[in-house]
Fold this protein.
Amino acid sequence: MDIKHVIKAKQFADKEILNTLFHYSQEFERLDKENNIPQIMKGKILANLFYEPSTRTRFSFDVAMLKLGGQVITTESAGHFSSVTKGESLTDTIKVIGGYSDVIVIRHNIVGSALTASKVSPVPIINAGDGIGEHPTQALLDLYTIWKEFGRISDLSICMVGDLLYGRTVHSLIHFFSELKGITVHLVSPPSLKLPEKYKQILRDANIEFEETYDLNKVTDKADVFYITRIQKERFATKEDYEKLKGSFVVDNAFMSKISDGAIIMHPLPRVDEIKPEVDDDKRAAYFRQAKNGLYMRMALLKVLLGN
Ligand code: CP
């Protein structure tokens, strides 16, 4: 697999590549249980450069690198704690950090920033989320979760719920759906947070059936996967705009009683109020398993980028 940087989901929208990543992830999970992870990153340094907050992505890359025998340098609020405050450009920052490390994981508020970074970086760049653009490593771990839960990533009905306008994990997943067989998509969002036309066109071009609705109750019996997303406060211009839409969709025990026994609830997390904690103990609540899967998928990506 000849992959230099991880920038967009589309780079991985290939059956063989996905299969390889799934099997690497599964193998790392097995080896982790045996406390026997090969130290293939010994002598290598990962730089986590985060301009936006993160819990899962940053920590899972940290832990993935450490478990593989490598080391980590990190800044969790790069906009405040790096020389960006003195006016340094992103490209200069990348050229410098690329001289100190073997791989850079970047989360930035500007769409296209990871691509910009990759053009000047002497080391691989991993896009950990670029504004409302993409979050390819999240989409990969999401697909890995579906593969583990169902034993396949084809012939499934998938319901995307919440902020489909700004949700970068949703955008990355749409690129993958277009490569999968037998996928039906249900899009559930408030009218002002609908999936952008360019992503709907990707579905149409791939002959994927999809329907849009604003009513989650209309799809309770239709999906295998409910992919719930947060209404993202930080993407709204005013607090009032956010307040109007917050709490639009709620997954609670009453909702769980209406969906099928074989369905699962996924969420990239963090959640706010869209999934009630009462659902957490339901076996169909897959979101914490999903977050754990991220650790192994990120190990697999490090192996692909640096392992050889
Ligand atoms: N899913 C996700 O990207 O979580 P974090 O923002 O905590 O990294």
In short: Residues 136-291 form a domain with the Rossmann fold fold (CATH 3.40.50.1370). The beta strands are 45-50, 71-75, 103-108, 125-130, 156-161, 183-188, 209-213, 225-228, 264-266. Residues 54-57, 129, 135, 138, 268-270 surround phosphoric acid mono(formamide)ester (CB under 6 Å). The chain is about 40% helix and 15% strand.
